[in-house]
Request: fold
Amino acid sequence: MLAAPIPFNDPERLAALRELLILDTPPEARYDKIVQFARDEFDVPIALLSLVDANRQWFKSKVGLDVCETDRSISFCGHAILQDDLFIIPDTLADERFADNPLVTGFPHIRFYAGAPLIMPSGYALGTLCLIDSKPREVDFTDMAILATLRDLLLQELLPPTEARHG
Amino acid sequence: MAELLSGSLNMLLVEPETLLRRTVSLTARTLGLGQIHEAASPEAAQRLLRSLPFHGAVIAINCQGPTDCPYDLTLLDQIRAGESASPANLPVAVLAENATSQLLRELNQRNIDRLILKPFRARLLLDAFAAFEALNPAQKSGK
Reply:
């Protein structure tokens, strides 16, 4: 297994995340609505708004999963935040970075992962909107465009009102 | 009011659910499926239909009452009667909660191209707009 890499600018990224004052806050309907929509749109068992903290990924919104956080080192979203665009793993068992990941070999038995990094105007990727399935899947350009749109709508909610207006 | 863009197809989306409407509209822009004009209500749609010619429309129809759920087909009738800035044979897809034999008959009489039933997925609406685009290749290329 390849542990989630730590970006070179992680201290600044974490500072940007903490400025939002969102970690460990209660669920909010404005996020849950978009995450639920994503799950329904793609017909996957799990959709998450995951924020990548120093040692964990914490789920601000979760549909289909009962845990509120997992270790960062085993997180798929920890990989996704290093990408410029969507991070798609069609079949985890066919990918040596993830085939023996505990989230693949054990609960929730991830076989498919698609993560859209939440990149703020500052350039820091704070987390992802991600889809998870226990079966392998393929996605096409339209699927990716829809996921990117939902990610953009989440970003508008995450941004402070002044930045959202100009973003 | 938005102007007609040269070489860009104008599509109408009438759908009360904001998140679905915004998702389809923004994704269509990414996919280059023309310009989606959004209306949250039949009244807003009527204003758009009077002022702009469209190349295709996806229209959610609402139940008019709690019993027997008769659908409000006023918008469709106005389009087919030529009471809009679009041609009377405008390609139209309809979104409905469920399909009764009466509804299917009514839609057939109005030459509706496609019926989309709940659950409404953005993907299905985008497919409908893509089909409308395929009917208008000359306008799409700006010729």
